Amino acid sequence: MADRYFRNEMPDFVPENQNIIEEERIEIHRQGTEDSLLRLLSLPYPTVLSHRLQRSAIDLKETIVVQTWGLTGQRVEDFTLYTGTLGTAFLLFKSFQVTHNKNDLNLCLEIIKACDSSSSQSRESLSEDDIHMEVTFMCGRAGVSALGAVAAKYMGDDQLLNHYLDQFKEIKLSDDHSNELFHGRAGYLWTCLFLNKHLGKDTIPSTSMGAIVREIIKNGRKLSKSGGSPLWFEFAGHRYWGAAHGLAGIMHVLMDFELKSDEIEDVKGTLRYMIENRFPSGNYPYSEEDKSRDVIVHWCHGAPGIALTLVKAAEVFGDKEFLEAAMNAAEVVWNRGLLKKVGLCHGISGNAYVFLSLYRLTGVVEYLYRAKAFTCFLLDRGHMLMLRGDMHGGDNPFSLFEGIAGMAYLFFDMVQPKNARFPCYEV
After folding, report:
1. Can you tell me which family this protein belongs to (predicted)?
2. Does the annotation place 177 within a ligand binding site?
3. What values do phi and psi take at 287, rounded to 5?
């Protein structure tokens, strides 16, 4: 298992030193050493370290734009947000939110336009199964339309906003859609939540979303007759537990809606089933069919994504058992989550959000420190480790969910940690 992650040798807590001068760190401590990392962790957060992270995020953003947009001749082969060019647009939108640089928003909309064109052309050659996957923010055309509408709103272009919003409303769910986050109903509902957050509460009516919620729960109850959890869902022949394709992701989205009392109990019961059947280590299984291998500590599968869902449950339901379970999962992430990968989906960047989520809910400064520790590890050593081949930069190295764009997104979020949300998961 240890070959999946770096041994976490960082102290459990390092107090900030108000007397440190940032330039002094550069002169005295060579980057990538134990001293340089400890020095970063000692920097005063609001006045020094957050500014350094913002500068690094902007530099990374510029590199990503060049690699995914400039050097491609502004051609889009993969329009998706997960591994494709729309991820660059989403990063630019994040940069605009933090820096208020209108140039980022202009370029964001330019890239969305190209993704829109690419997704329209590719749709003509898609199979029926592929078209079914268009409904989500991360992997589908829905993400292009939703981000386009929101970016147009911030640009003040009502005509463009309505164009993309009408385009989104043309996307329909079929009776045989899956229910998970990546390709299914939960992913479609998350896109609706994103639109309502930025465009207004009733942009997508609660009645239409409620019908989808009921359909998800009906499907979950139907499969649960096999026993165990009150709700079960299947994707590609597996009953997954994690955020990307399984129980955690679906429960996370369901908790954003008004549920009936029996539905609330089913959601709680599903989470309790997961807690009661976790590994002795505190980690969680990959799927119901594979409950023997305690190896994966990713957002997509394992403790990190489930921890974020448990934090949400603690916030929504106020039950201490969910907060305690989330804190226990966070210990797994602290000990085994310094992965030899950089990305959001299965890397250090994504795992840092567990601590940010707990910090936002509890206000406990140690969780902010842990998020800072994972982030500083990337800031101090990420580039060097990837160059040496000791850390994987992702099969799509400049993408949002597999590559360094996710690291840039984390750096932007660390500028305002109370506002940080795991992209495309926490609303």
Report:
1. Belongs to the LanC-like protein family.
2. no
3. -155, 170
End-to-end CA distance of the chain: 32
Please enumerate, as own/partner, the contacts of 273-282 that have beta carbons within 8 Å and a separation of 24 or more: 273/228, 273/229, 273/230, 274/229, 274/241, 274/247, 274/248, 274/306, 275/310, 275/321, 275/322, 275/325, 277/228, 281/332, 282/328, 282/329, 282/331, 282/332
Geometric angle at alpha carbon 299, from 171 and 336, rounded to 5°: 175
Q: 252 labelled as ligand-binding?
A: no
Per the confidence metrics, is the pTM higher than 0.85? yes
Any residues with CB less than 8 A from the CB of 268 and at least 6 apart, and which? 313, 317, 319
Cα dihedral 313, 139, 116, 253 in deg (nearest 10): -20
Coil vs helix vs strand at 315: helix
pLDDT mean over 372-389: 97
Q: Look at the block and give the residue holding tokens 């919620």.
A: 213
SS3 of residue 287 by DSSP: strand
Distance of CA 158 to the CA centre of its chain: 29
Question: Are 52 and 26 contacting, i.e. CB atoms less than 8 angstroms apart?
Answer: no
In angstroms, the CA 62 to CA 58 distance is 6
DSSP assignment of 228-263, as one string? SSS----BTTB-B-STTTSHHHHHHHHTTS---HHH
Output the CA–CA distances (angstroms, integers) from residue 358 to 179, 280, 308, 327, 364, in the order listed.
Answer: 27, 22, 8, 8, 8
Cβ atoms of 350 and 304 closer than 8 Å: yes
The answer on whether 300 is annotated among ligand-binding residues is yes
Q: Which tens digits make up the pLDDT trace of 78-88?
A: 999 999 999 99
